[in-house]
């Protein structure tokens, strides 16, 4: 980073000498103050739990303007990519390589991903070690991490070709692993991938075909799944992506790093929110119960949150939520479920919340997870697998960010510091003195 024209001056009320720090400008978005010399010059750290004011890296992949409600992948608005931007693999190519593919590049990329969809046959034994009622996210943390023990030929993180092959393997094998986690949970045989199908159609085939009956591809539903994947593909330095970067900063292999990202995504404040939002709607049950539920949400002692609402960065409508609501209409119409009671309940809940002073004053709007559960449920995906679908989609974002980090000359092992508030040094007393 060398584009510093202006500087920030930090002065101290105790008379210590002031300190000048460079300011860098991004292509868009807030400037940053480079505080790397702060500790060396003053002996002090900055204190920023939750990274409220800290840019941990520079990146050229995804940009969010939270006030405007804008999301750009490599500069392209999410609305354009989701509506006219081709399929999910086109978005994958864009995130990985920085540009949209031309026709030949697209065909080559699709064929490369497609040729990596099978997982090593021995992976089946990993699945069989899990209880049938294991949460799919625990199965995914284990099995994605286990990929590192099968693909030794792509683990050298200093070899660009290895990094590329690992990225393709992860994007190609995630649908297979997610579908295997599902099949295992319901006691059905695993279904092998079919390379004549598109990425999303193949996933639905692996989910819903059985040896006795082939899944009939429905283009509206496939397109809806593709859109879910595009909308979840990347979201700059969120918790799971930062986890992937931090894990990768030590030189860990990409399969281990993505497994770490999956573990982080599992939490209800992050990827687990889609599952939690649908459970919440089911618990509310009817439009008549909304006022009582909203009263609970506003009561700070209740611990109840409106799941699928609020975001650290968006202080406006999450653009992904709008697209997801449209997709909800399309899917429910296709399936003849226009009167779906949960969709009606969700729209009414949204309407009431957006008029309520509590949500208005805190700038709390629906996020991507508010409607995605309803769409996924209509596609036949069980609630426990929702976060697994999110992990499938986000894998390309994680691996693109991981690749960017490895190639960044400013990259260092991530090592935050702390404000220590525990006991100062003391001596261990003998047992009879404790
Ligand atoms: N319901 C009720 N109150 C909320 C909610 C909510 N969903 N979200 C935030 N608030 C309140 C919060 O209590 C606080 O109030 P006060 O100022 O009176 O203390 C204020 O709004 C600011 O919230 P915060 O907790 O400081 O915000 P944050 O940036 O730390 O948290 C969040 C962001 C996403 C964790 C939070 O909004 C949340 O828990 N939402 C529900 C879970 C959810 O939908 N998560 C999915 C996020 S989008 C997909 C993804 O990125 O994975």
Report on the structure:
- The longest helix has 27 residues, at 160-186.
- Strands 1-2-3 form a three-stranded antiparallel sheet. A three-stranded antiparallel sheet has the order 4-5-6.
- The radius of gyration is 24 Å and the shape is globular.
- Strand 5 (70-73) and strand 6 (76-77) form a beta hairpin.
- The mean pLDDT is 95.
- It is built from 18 helices and six strands.
- By secondary structure, it is mostly helical.
- The protein has helices at 38-42, 78-84, 88-97, 103-114, 123-128, 136-146, 160-186, 199-208, 219-231, 239-249, 254-265, 273-284, 290-298, 319-334, 341-354, 357-361, 369-379, 386-406; strands at 7-10, 19-24, 32-33, 62-65, 70-73, 76-77.
- Bound molecules: carboxymethyl coenzyme *A (CMC).
Which features does this protein show?
about 425 residues; mainly alpha; 3-stranded antiparallel β-sheet; 18 helices; 6 strands; about 50% helix; globular; binds carboxymethyl coenzyme *A
């Amino acid at each position: 980073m060398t584009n510093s024209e202006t500087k920030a001056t930090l002065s101290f009320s105790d008379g210590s000498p002031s300190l000048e720090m460079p300011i860098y400008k991004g292509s868009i978005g807030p400037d940053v103050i480079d505080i790397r010399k702060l500790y060396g010059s003053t002996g002090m750290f900055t204190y920023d739990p939750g990274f409220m004011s800290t840019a941990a890296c520079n990146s050229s992949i995804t940009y969010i303007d939270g006030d405007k409600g804008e999301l750009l992948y490599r500069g392209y608005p999410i609305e354009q990519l989701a509506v006219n931007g081709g399929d999910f693999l086109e978005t994958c190519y864009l995130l990985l390589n920085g540009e949209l593919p031309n026709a030949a590049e697209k065909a080559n990329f699709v064929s490369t991903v497609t040729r990596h969809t099978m997982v090593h046959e021995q992976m089946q034994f990993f699945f069989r070690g899990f209880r049938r009622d294991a949460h799919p996210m625990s199965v995914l943390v284990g099995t994605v991490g286990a990929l590192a023990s099968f693909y030794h030929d792509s683990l050298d993180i200093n070899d660009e070709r290895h990094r590329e092959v690992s990225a393709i393997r992860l994007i190609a094998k995630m649908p297979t692993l997610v579908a295997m986690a599902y099949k295992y949970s319901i006691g059905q045989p695993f279904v092998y991938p079919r390379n004549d199908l598109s990425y999303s159609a193949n996933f639905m085939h692996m989910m819903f075909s059985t040896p006795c009956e082939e899944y009939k591809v429905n283009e509206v539903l496939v397109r809806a799944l593709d859109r879910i994947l595009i909308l979840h593909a990347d979201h700059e330095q969120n918790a799971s992506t930062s986890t992937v970067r931090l894990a990768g900063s030590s030189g860990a292999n990409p399969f281990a790093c993505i497994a770490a990202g999956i573990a982080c995504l599992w939490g209800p404040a992050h990827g687990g929110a889609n599952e939690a939002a649908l459970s919440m709607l089911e618990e509310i049950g009817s439009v008549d119960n909304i006022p009582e539920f909203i009263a609970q949400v506003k009561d700070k002692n209740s611990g109840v949150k409106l799941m699928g609402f609020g975001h650290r960065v968006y202080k406006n409508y999450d653009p992904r939520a709008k697209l997801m609501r449209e997709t909800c209409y399309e899917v429910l119409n296709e399936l003849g479920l226009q009167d779906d009671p949960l969709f009606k309940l969700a729209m009414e809940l949204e309407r009431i919340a957006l008029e309520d002073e509590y949500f208005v004053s805190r700038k709390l709007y629906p996020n991507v997870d508010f409607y995605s559960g309803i769409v996924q449920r209509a596609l036949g995906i069980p609630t426990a697998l929702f976060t697994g679908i999110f992990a499938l989609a986000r894998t390309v974002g994680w691996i693109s960010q991981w690749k960017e980090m490895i190639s960044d000359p400013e990259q260092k092992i991530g090592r935050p510091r702390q404000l220590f508030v525990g006991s100062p040094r003391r001596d261990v007393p003998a047992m009879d003195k404790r």
